[in-house]
């Protein structure tokens, strides 16, 4: 058995979990959300563009205006909007809570795929029933996450910790609600990106170049937003601490660069179902770091909602996997 994809995906899981915690710490130090996104996208674009140029310079298709428009909206949905919504939600909630919404994306994607007729469903088959049931269960879990916080189970914060984080907790329930809505928007936006990406893959079959273009365009988009909303001073746009600088480089090179390349490699080797199945582990690792490093509180609503979402996710993944295996056995 080839263990390389498993080992590589576990490394990606740890990397994304560490990134979630580092980002929360950088925000707690006062780093602006838009500034972080702009710098992260710049690092990702500088990292991936040379790789794309040399790897696909002989096979890259011609960039037409139609493809450019597709790439522009891919950047808007898949990098600019989802990052802004995710980090807004992360700022107003916790790293564990924000990570939980990653697991709702397959359910939203499935519903949108049905709406756009990208995917069909046979309600009489076990696979169809599993996907429908899993989607309903997953959305129920997302509802619990968004609406029910519940009592604290772990990580009772000290007075010093509360004082240090008071800037991010003023308004309590209202901020938590705003963060929940932002994270739901993040999941919906990411799902729309998957639908769009399925069309881009056929129109512009250059994986590295398409991704590099996405980061370049999203950098321009968010830099425009940043220039309009943030003060143009070095104090804001230059990372002020070592932690902030490390987080920006780690996010750009690790998460957006190496993380994407590793996941793409795993999809080619073992398929998308195998790769997606590791996503819930990000939340589990993040939860451990969240409580032990950030001393955040772990609430009953987060545990219950996350468990329900993961159950729904694996029902959907099982349905997709079973459907694919049945399809592969049919005569050509």
Describe this structure in words.
The model is unreliable at 157-170 (pLDDT under 50). Helix 1 (4-28) packs across helix 13. The chain has helices at 4-28, 33-55, 65-92, 95-100, 105-115, 126-147, 159-164, 173-203, 207-229, 234-237, 242-270, 272-276, 279-292, 300-329; strands at 152-154, 298-299. A two-stranded antiparallel sheet has the order 1-2. The longest helix is centred in the middle third of the chain and has 31 residues, at 173-203. By secondary structure, the protein is mainly alpha-helical.
CA-based gyration radius:
20 Å
**Percent of sequence in beta strands:** under 5%
Side-by-side strand order of the widest sheet: 1-2
Give the termini distance in whole angstroms. 28 Å
Order of helices and strands: HHHHHHEHHHHHHHEH
Shape: globular
Task: List the defining traits of the structure above.
77% helix; mainly alpha; 2 strands; 14 helices; 332 residues; two-stranded antiparallel ribbon
Write the layout of secondary structure elements.
Elements: H1 4-28, H2 33-55, H3 65-92, H4 95-100, H5 105-115, H6 126-147, E1 152-154, H7 159-164, H8 173-203, H9 207-229, H10 234-237, H11 242-270, H12 272-276, H13 279-292, E2 298-299, H14 300-329
Antiparallel strand pairs: 1-2
Helix pairs in contact: 1-11, 1-13, 2-3, 2-9, 2-11, 3-8, 3-9, 5-6, 5-8, 6-8, 6-14
Q: What can be said about this structure in brief?
A:
By secondary structure, the chain is mainly α.
